[in-house]
Amino acid sequence: MTHQHHSPAPGAPTAGSELSLAQKASLTSGAGDFVTQAAGDVPAVSMSDGPHGLRLPKEQGDGGQVDLHSAAPATCFPPAVALGSSWDPQLAGRVAAAIAAEARAHGVHVVLGPGINIKRSPLCGRNFEYFSEDPLVTAEVGGAMVRGLQEAGVGAALKHYAANNQETDRMRVSADIDERPLREIYLRAFERIVRRDRPWSVMSAYNAVNGVPLSENHRLLTDILRAEWGFDGVVMSDWGAVRDRVPALRAGLDLQMPGTGGRTDAEVVAAVESGALDAGALDRSVARLALFARRATAADGAGAGEVSYEAHHELARTAAERCVVLLKNDGELLPLAPDSGTVAVIGELARTPRFQGAGSSQVTPTRLDVPLDCLNAAADGASVTFAAGYALPGSDADTDTAEDLVEEAERLAAGSDTVLLFLGLPAQDESEGFDRDHIDLPEAQVRLLERVVAVNPRVVVVLSNGGVVRTAPWHDRVPALVEGWLLGQGGGAALAGVLFGSVNPSGRLAETIPLRLEDSPSHLSFPGEEGHVRYGEGVFVGYRGYDRRRTEVAFPFGHGLSYTTFTYSALTVLPAADGARLDVRVRVANTGQWAGREVVQIYSRGPAGSRVARPERELRGFASLELAPGEEGEACVSVDRADLAHYSEREAKWRVAGGVHHFEAAASSRDIRLTVPVTLDGDPSGILLTGRHTLAEWLEHPVGGPLLAEAFARGRTDESAGAMADPVMRRFLAGIPLDVIADFPQSSVGPEDVITLSAKVAAEAAGGEPPTDDE
Q1: Contact call for residues 647 and 179 (beta carbons, < 8 A)
Q2: Per-residue pLDDT tens for 110-160?
Q3: DSSP state, residue 524
Q4: Are 667 and 601 in contact (CB under 8 A)?
Q5: Which of 134, 169, 238, 265 is catalytic?
Q6: How far apart are the first and last CA of the chain?
């Protein structure tokens, strides 16, 4: 369902009209680091970083400045990299509601999140804050967080709008993107959430798009966000992103954060007084800010309610359990029985876990489940021993000590029945503010793995990482591999549950794990140069690119194993009566011995022969089923017909191609279980043919094709008939504009015919004749 909400029209009465010019200007910038200005009857709004838990820095002195290095405790839930792998919007909503409860308890009105940028490259240093390489997964999980926050009375700040897909030169770089990938990939999750979930605010990004900084980008902030999508909330800047306050206001940016001590407020006042800035533009921003402030503070007098941090920790643990992805389990090495002999836990990350990323989203947890402690507790009858194996950066270990650690681990592995080897990225390798140079594990950890596998083949590797790491070629040498991501403060217990079998893993990859960094579709155009990054891969981001190029990958998008097995049957796709959606249903049976959750993924492939470059398949929806052994259920997914459209740059609109679309029920983008063809009528063509269009474009056009064929038949000569009958000549002529063909002496259609035909096409196309092709 689409909600349309529009900003006050120019000249309409605006809230705050009784304010002075200086007061109005003050409302459009912060009063401090994380608080807005109050003026007249417009209250101040308190904000906090908090995509996966509140960062609650302490105020220092007057003016709202805060100490970013000292924060009060809050529940640290799984970051977006993990939560995206849950493929569980309902769970994301529960997490967001808990964050909202803590926010209200601390007097926070708006949480700065979720971040819904697309994982264009595995090198992005901030990928741990983003959900997926796919806009649908991003929109469904991110949108659930928006709803969870706002239904609990706390505002969301959807970020970072838009195309903020790298940290290199992030304050200045221009993301140079063609219109189609911009619309289909980088704006699509924003559009879906804005239209459906109505966030109270959107945060504009640091970067520029096609040379225009986001904070001054009228097309993105006003033409698309407000006029097309109906956004009625506040657009705030990322912290320090505003370059020039006056053109930013003119473009549709309502709030500069943080405050500048009144310096840029004075610039706004001077611009209005001189006529350089229309007073109506300021009034419209003030009206939106007043509504935002009253909405955000509406619950202030109602009391915050008591927060159970113990219950929130249990939710953090439950969420983490859903996020763990079992990548590999040869010989059913996992789960381990509680009394499974001797278990060697190797790797400092088991004792000193990474559970979140670095930067603005960092949370001080209320408590922390340490994997090693939790494994000891879960191993009822097993003997658990530990060796560090390696030192984390920043420790005092020298080269000799490092070798001692490896030898100790090697001895322990050799004398144990099973090894749980914890590997991953140190905090220094990934953070907001910089991108990674590679996707490899630290060399010392890979050497440790080789030494351990040489003395004990029963090795389970458990990964801790915020960005994808390369698992090739070593993943072939270990029978079991668990992707643990960064799991928040309950991650230790979640991993112990998965490893010892009290939890059946059901996480699915929300991004592809490549065999090599060089295989990434964006590799040759990341992170750009001289202030520009060209999005040369177009719409072929993530699995769309890997699958289209038939590139072998380590583990595909959507992949994840279970301790049980599932079979699919009876896939049906039925258009709804109104034609606005398609109802997809598939039967799923649990054919194994464990109760488990299956994430059913629905993809579609567009009609064959398209002249528009299309991905091999695209995710259209997903649903999950929890089934006991032997139980069967039905997964139901509703696909909006509009979601099957591609964006036509030539027509400047979305178009559903007519023809046969194939719908697929799958367990990953490369594990297709069932396929059903569905024939759909296409959308009317917006192309008005002229003589400059090619013969092929004329013949394929639903209106122009029959008209031209008729004209050829009327004026046919033996020579022209022979040319059109010859397949080589037809192919030769296909790419030639019709007005050029009309000038050929032997052509059966002359220049005057082209003019007449073009007029007929314009007249008939105005009647909305449906096309049957992809153009």
Answers
A1: yes
A2: 999 999 999 999 999 999 999 999 999 999 999 999 999 999 999 999 999
A3: G
A4: yes
A5: 238
A6: 28
